[in-house]
Design goal:
Elements lengths: L1 E6 L4 H10 L5 E7 L16 E4 L5 H8 L4 E4 L11 H13 L6 E5 L24 H14 L7 E5 L3 E3 L9 E3 L12 E3 H14 L3 E6 L1
Parallel strand pairs: 1-2, 1-4, 2-3, 4-5, 5-6, 6-10, 7-9
Antiparallel strand pairs: 8-10
């Protein structure tokens, strides 16, 4: 049995991941919520959802939440004008809460802003990158660089393409691309939230590590 803590469970990506995880009886999921009222924002599924109130800004709260988890899935989507180090700070806080990372794994939902393009640039630097999500795009590039310097057994970072579609239907399929110095071709791909969630669940069951580009 895999014991899993899902951070960001009330978001659209988190909802999709929770639905897919509910189909795997070998995974025992705890959905982190900010307060009791957030339970109404979780999807309606057949299996009962175990929840826990977690303050991601509080180390003691994170320590309590992660103490029984083998895998932490971080689907938190920080919004607005976040700093370029905000996602690194969040990852460090989660790790501090976990403490000993031996045998533990943090799987993070990545961002397309971190993708490598021509001439050593990142996709967030491209003129076509949406200005309203630019702070998050920069923060994801910083997070990816930070993760790639950590021990590889402790993390996985799954990146959807720019066309990451909440309303497209579930096909049941996805493809996985190997990271490279030029990931420009991946920019033309797309995937639905539900199909991306299937990949996240596969990363859980197979304990993927490292960077993975996920699209149809």
């Amino acid at each position: 049995m895999i014991r899993l803590l899902l951070l960001g469970a009330t978001g659209r990506t988190g909802n999709s991941i929770l639905i897919q995880l509910s189909e795997n009886e070998q995974v025992q999921v705890t959905a982190a919520i900010r307060d009791v009222s957030d339970s109404s924002r979780l999807p309606k599924i057949k299996r009962p959802i175990h929840t826990m109130i977690v303050d991601i800004d509080n180390i003691l709260s994170l320590r309590k939440a992660t103490s029984q988890a083998d895998i932490i899935v971080n689907a938190i989507r920080l919004r607005e004008n976040i700093s370029r180090s905000a996602l690194i700070t969040l990852d460090k806080r989660i790790r501090e809460g976990v403490g000993d990372m031996e045998g533990r794994l943090i799987i993070t939902v990545g961002g397309a802003g971190s993708l490598h393009t021509l001439h050593g640039q990142r996709f967030w630097q491209d003129p076509t990158f949406p200005k309203r999500t630019l702070p998050r795009g920069i923060a994801h590039a910083e997070l990816r660089d930070y993760l790639e310097k950590l021990p590889p057994a402790s993390w996985a970072y799954l990146i959807p393409p720019p066309a990451y579609n909440p309303t497209e239907p579930r096909t049941g399929y996805y493809n996985r691309w190997t990271p490279s110095n030029d990931e420009s071709e991946f920019l033309n791909r797309s995937i639905s939230y539900e199909d991306f969630a299937i990949a996240v669940c596969k990363a859980v069951s197979e304990r993927w590590t490292g960077v993975h580009l996920i699209a149809n």
